[in-house]
Amino acid sequence: MAEESLISSLYPPPPAYYKYFTSENVNRAKELEASNGEIPEDAKYLEFLTPPRQPEGETYRSFGNVWQFNDKIPQLEDMGIPQLYKPSDVPDGDDSQAKILALKKLIKSLLLNFLEVVGVMSVDPKEFSLKVEHIRTILINIHHLLNEYRPHQSRESLILLMENQVETKKNEILEIKRVCSEVEDKIKSLVEIYVDGKAEVKHEDDELQPPQEVRSEMDVDPVV
Amino acid sequence: MADRLTQLQICLDQLVEQFCATLHYVDTHHEFIPAEGEEAMTDPQATVATKEEFKDTIDELSTDLILKTRQIFALIDSLPGAGVSQQEQIKKVVDLQKELESVEEEKLQAVRQKDELLAWCNDLVTSFSKELIESKKMA
């Protein structure tokens, strides 16, 4: 029994038909679909390659949860909780300013309601439930507002990330260019010293190892 | 650090916890006031605070509540992208995408230049050493 429940709690293995998804079969299924042909009797397994239709209705079940086909934030009213702030008149609820204002109002109401709870309880403790219910509704409203704000914040974060990336890359470019010009300047000054006084420079460079292979000299090479 | 919204939600939870703590304190530490003509009740479970203590703690608890609320307001004010519409955001993302691509191109160019310089330096060192050896041989 224990063994059974252990097995049933394991992640299920892939469906057996995954073996039919060979390149050959996929191509054949595509051809059949293009020609609208019936699946021949001898190749019934090709049916597995046709994706199933989307279930009817707006939701589906998966791993014990109900999911929406179209991702959207469920409305408070749908969950049986009165919405205390004015519903957004902009599509997708995209008016951050109004949301912030509503948020501030709700926080103030929250404080006031707490004060009222304390007041009510000091007079008649039995009457607390109504006020606690109010606080609950306000809190749910606040959290809902915050969650509605999330897509907005995500976009804003993305913008910030991209700006940082551009900034980093620009700095990298500057750094590369700086080092390059530094090296160039150094070589130029060395060359000048070399040309000016060959003898003095020579013994300083005695430690240079002989090259493994001699490369062709470039036309810019001032040594030649 | 968590993002602003998560911070806000955490602060809210803390605020509600403070509500609870405040009520709990009042519940367990209040003094007993007798009804008219009766003796004051006692409760061995309750730890009655002195008037002074009680007042101070209530002051402290309410100050904490106000501070937490101020913190929440500060967080609300610093929510990112207030007053920017979705269209503006998306346009900005697209623009940044283009900029990112062009900057990347520029960077590759710079790296190529750097590689060329490196190769040139290599050649320089090689030919220089070569000349050095030959001059040594001659000497």
TrEMBL record, chain A:
GO molecular function: any one? transcription coregulator activity
By its UniProt entry, which SUPFAM superfamilies does this protein fall under?
Mediator hinge subcomplex-like
Assembly and partners?
Answer: Component of the Mediator complex.
Q: Name one GO biological process term.
A: regulation of transcription by RNA polymerase II
Family the entry assigns:
Belongs to the Mediator complex subunit 7 family.
Q: Name one GO cellular component term.
A: mediator complex
Function recorded in the entry: Component of the Mediator complex, a coactivator involved in the regulated transcription of nearly all RNA polymerase II-dependent genes. Mediator functions as a bridge to convey information from gene-specific regulatory proteins to the basal RNA polymerase II transcription machinery.
Q: Which UniProt keywords apply?
A: Activator, Nucleus, Transcription, Transcription regulation
| Region feature (Disordered) | 202-224
Compartments where located = Nucleus
List the Gene3D superfamilies hit by this protein, alphabetically: 6.10.140.1520, 6.10.140.200
Instruction: Identify the taxonomic lineage of the organism of origin.
Output: Eukaryota, Fungi, Dikarya, Ascomycota, Saccharomycotina
InterPro entries under this entry? Answer: Med7/Med21-like (IPR037212), Mediatior_Med7 (IPR009244), Mediatior_Med7_sf (IPR044888)
Protein species of origin: Cyberlindnera jadinii (strain ATCC 18201 / CBS 1600 / BCRC 20928 / JCM 3617 / NBRC 0987 / NRRL Y-1542)
Stated name of the protein: Mediator of RNA polymerase II transcription subunit 7
Automatic annotation (TrEMBL), chain B:
Question: What GO terms are given for molecular function?
Answer: transcription coregulator activity
Instruction: Report if keyword Secreted is assigned.
Output: no
Q: Where in the cell is it found?
A: Nucleus
> Mind telling me which InterPro entries this protein's record contains?
Med7/Med21-like (IPR037212), Mediator_Med21 (IPR021384)
Where does the UniProt entry say this protein principally localizes? Answer: nucleus
One Pfam family name is Med21
A Gene Ontology annotation in the biological process aspect, one of them, is: regulation of transcription by RNA polymerase II
Give the keywords, sorted.
Activator, Coiled coil, Nucleus, Transcription, Transcription regulation
This protein's GO CC annotations: mediator complex
Q: Which residues form a coiled coil?
A: 86-113
User: Carries keyword Coiled coil?
Assistant: yes
Subunit composition and interactions = Component of the Mediator complex.
Q: Which PANTHER family match?
A: MEDIATOR OF RNA POLYMERASE II TRANSCRIPTION SUBUNIT 21, RNA POLYMERASE II HOLOENZYME COMPONENT SRB7
Biological function: Component of the Mediator complex, a coactivator involved in the regulated transcription of nearly all RNA polymerase II-dependent genes. Mediator functions as a bridge to convey information from gene-specific regulatory proteins to the basal RNA polymerase II transcription machinery. Mediator is recruited to promoters by direct interactions with regulatory proteins and serves as a scaffold for the assembly of a functional preinitiation complex with RNA polymerase II and the general transcription factors.
Family according to the record: Belongs to the Mediator complex subunit 21 family.
**What is the protein named?**
Mediator of RNA polymerase II transcription subunit 21
What phylogenetic lineage does the species belong to? Eukaryota, Fungi, Dikarya, Ascomycota, Saccharomycotina
